[in-house]
Amino acid sequence: MILTMEEFRNYRPEKPTFALFGHPISHTMSPELHALLFQASGQDCTYFAVDVPPEQLGEAMRIAAGKCGGLNLTIPHKKAVFDYLDAVDPAARDLGSVNTVHFQDGKAIGYNTDILGFAGSLEFDGIDPQGAIAVVCGYGGVSRVMAYHLANAGAKVLITGRNLAKAKTLRNELRGYLPNASVDIMPATQLPRATQIVVNGTPLGMYPHEDSAPLDKLPVGTTYVFDAIYNPPLTATMKRAPYSAKRRNGLLMLVLQAAYAQTIWFGTQFDQPSLTRILRLLSGDMAKKRLQSVYGKSNIVLCGFMGSGKTTIGRKLARALRCEFIDMDDYLEKREGKKISEIFAESGEEGFRDIETQCAREVSDKTGCVIALGGGAVLRAENVELYKKNGFLIHLNTPFYRIVQNLSRDTSRPLLQGDKEKQTRLLYNRRKRIYVSCADRSVSGARISEIMDAVFNAI
């Protein structure tokens, strides 16, 4: 929920209330995120965003002091809010940026949880900055937060960007706050090959300008890439990472900084499974928004060889997106009142494919669904066209050995008779190119969680 200033003036809280101030603020995910965190911790609270023009920040702060238990702040208020605070946490003071306010005992106290969110993201990924060469792209508020943490954690920080004078200013400020830290500036064309960590704090690569990036290429030694952007989930900077490098977008940082804000407000501590579940749900929310805004679609449709995990992944995706799941094999069997093997025996493969197409016509008009197709559904171009009308078609490129494992005890597949592994290999080789050619994206992963992430990144 997003309120105007007039609506905020007239708002009468009925339960503990918290808000986000920003301008503009139409694309924020904070209300959904904090609602999930409140639910996880059992807090019955209200959270909304308020579009606060810069000249009205003082009035908004006075109103909030009487109606809210705390605030979050985003652009352009993170620095301007200092004028309306009674006290500021030392890290926030050094950073010159406050993104969280706690109203306590009649006072407004400012904190910066962005730095905790970034530090928590590195910890989550098992990244220890101590002694590593870390390149920070940019010199704005987010870059300042990341450079400060990396330098304080013992990394050798190099700040780069198009304006080295601004980079130099940030370097000098950080040296003043952290006199024993290693912080310097360097042109993007001269970055050391031995660089291990690259972080992007610039908006380059953010939707809708998704092809831009602060660096044309990353140093060959890069082992970890962090991009504060999360729309798109797989940014141009992340795509430039070496194949073996770990990559992380800013969505986890967003979740963690919000969780730390609630720790300040309530003392709540969140365990990792809860945060992982919330991250997955937020990824689903982002995927739904991108399906519509970027591709003009509302369904995710999974194709792939039999035994590739379409049903398992589809159910989990539907839970993350909080939408309907349709397994087309199940749909067909319920529609016909028969098992697929029985239909094959009675009508042959061609007769079965005719029924499959009839089902595609019935289901393709649905919206807001995750749909798992039968292994041969995409063999007919008409089916592909029908499912793509409202759906983003993703191919699960499951390794052949995993498919064999999944099918080893399955006796219900009418096309696999006799020497099952040989038949499976022949059919797999015949169909793989078809899956790749008709799908909008092809994804793979060793674990279910990796495949889920790959699907969200593909969108």
Kindly list the characteristics that best describe this protein:
globular; alpha/beta; six-stranded parallel sheet; 459 residues; 46% helix; seven-stranded mixed sheet
Blueprint of the fold:
Layout: E1 2-3, H1 5-10, E2 17-22, H2 30-41, E3 46-51, H3 57-67, E4 70-73, E5 87-88, H4 90-95, E6 100-104, E7 107-111, H5 114-124, E8 133-137, H6 141-152, E9 156-160, H7 164-177, E10 182-185, E11 197-200, E12 224-227, H8 236-239, E13 246-248, H9 251-266, H10 272-295, E14 299-303, H11 310-321, E15 324-327, H12 328-336, H13 340-363, E16 369-372, H14 381-390, E17 391-396, H15 400-407, H16 420-438, E18 441-443, H17 448-458
Parallel strand pairs: 1-3, 2-3, 2-4, 5-7, 8-9, 8-11, 9-10, 11-12, 12-13, 14-16, 14-17, 15-16, 17-18
Antiparallel strand pairs: 4-6, 6-7
Helix pairs in contact: 2-9, 2-10, 5-6, 5-9, 9-10, 10-11, 12-13, 13-14
What do you see in this structure?
By secondary structure, the protein is of the alpha/beta class. Helices cover 46% and strands 17% of the residues. The chain is built from 17 helices and 18 strands. It has helices spanning 5-10, 30-41, 57-67, 90-95, 114-124, 141-152, 164-177, 236-239, 251-266, 272-295, 310-321, 328-336, 340-363, 381-390, 400-407, 420-438, 448-458, and strands at residues 2-3, 17-22, 46-51, 70-73, 87-88, 100-104, 107-111, 133-137, 156-160, 182-185, 197-200, 224-227, 246-248, 299-303, 324-327, 369-372, 391-396, 441-443. The mean pLDDT is 94.
